[in-house]
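User: Sequence in, structure out. Go.
Assistant: Echoing your sequence, followed by the structure tokens.
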Amino acid sequence: MTVVPRLEAPNHRIQAGHQAREGSGVAILTVVVTGSLLGNLTIPQDAAAPVRASLEREGARWRQQLAKATEELADSTAPLSFVFVLRDVAIRFAFTSRMVWISERDEADKLKALLELPRTAQNLYFSAWWRLPKRIRSLNHLMRVIQSVPRHSNDIESVTSASHREEVAWL
């Protein structure tokens, strides 16, 4: 009888951690799917006014979803930083994703940079634990992608130090 309350406290924390991690996964998937939808949105020149207005509203709605998803990633990096080594990568991934979206780049450049980041992060953070080689390759690829995102002259400069820009050498 005294065992149940002692097991419930850690169980609650474990459940909360899984729910937070699931929320991060949803935000990453939202960036991938919504970014792909927005990237494929084309409004035909000969479209009727109601169709054009509907497509423009859909594009605006997808832009709002992307803004919200990148905010969610930036605000909740804790579930992705469950392993000490991945903490810095999670922070840099979230920061870079958000900075790309709020930059003054044109939308095509934003989407190109923004779509590569979460696809790679998803392989790193949400692959099965027994796929360690895949996760290591994903970690190295994500670091390269973060470093290769071109800095726009009007973007907010990265707050990470130059030492964090190196690829993880211990792998």
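User: And one key feature?
Assistant: The chain has one domain: 3-165.
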